[in-house]
Design goal:
The protein has helices at 2-13, 28-34, 39-60, 79-103, 118-133, 149-165, 176-180, 228-239; strands at 20-24, 64-71, 105-110, 139-147, 193-196, 215-218. It is of the alpha/beta class. Helix 3 runs parallel beside helix 4 and helix 4 packs parallel to helix 5. It is globular and about 55 Å long. The chain binds 3-methylbut-3-enyl trihydrogen diphosphate (2 copies) and magnesium ion.
Amino acid sequence: MAALLSKNNKAGQAACLPRHIAIIMDGNGRWATKRGLPRTAGHKAGAEAFRRIATYCKNLGVQYLTVYAFSTENWKRSADEVGAIMVLLKKYLLEAIDTMEKDQIRLKFFGDMTPISPEIRALAHETDEISDHLPEQDFQANICLNYGGRDEILRAVRTFAAECAAGEKKPEDLDETIFSSYLDSRGIPDPELIIRPSGEQRLSNFLLWQCAYSEFYYTDTLWPDFDEAELDRAIVAYQSRDRRFGGVKK
Ligand code: IPE
Ligand code: IPE
Ligand code: MG
């Protein structure tokens, strides 16, 4: 199926391919528990799945991949688990700094980085700078870190309200396009397809504004087992959806 998708894409059917795919990378803990391993082993395998799927999306011609890596609610977990996730993130960022230019992969972060360690913030700043020097049409991965859809909306509202209070903006000028420009996802089209592995069927505070007309795809596969064939199945399901956007088919 992979070959078919790529071939179709090359044959000019790129319009059928989502331009932006978002994934809730869920099921790492259960994947590890099933194998008698510590939950952190699941996060390590999950990071590998991310590398695999990001490369595959890039090769297929998907322009944006947004992944949910750590939510504003995930701080409730043990310090050990949170620490292990941050160590994996640091490792990924160090790798990315060395390879993203060669691989033509832009990397951006969504979320409130304030409570993230200065060391990781500095690395994220570096990947941001490298990304800004890469062509805008290059594949872009957005990593949602300390991200919550409600928090993203609140931060946008606070900034806009402060600009109104300073006399720079007028409340009556606010529309959907302007509001979107205050979000972490500014400048990026809404995801056409949102995938959640692991059998859960909820958003868990992911992309609440951006998902207004996204197609949802759920699978019982746990994120570390999510492979290219799974992504093909999700894309094929997406391609069979009738997207009406509130209208009526002629
Ligand atoms: C997703 O996997 C990764 C994070 C939320 C950080 P989980 O750790 O939630 O895995 P499960 O849902 O417990 O299996
Ligand atoms: C959502 O997964 C967050 C990420 C995948 C980063 P959770 O495992 O935190 O969500 P719930 O608790 O099942 O809703
Ligand atoms: Mg989970």
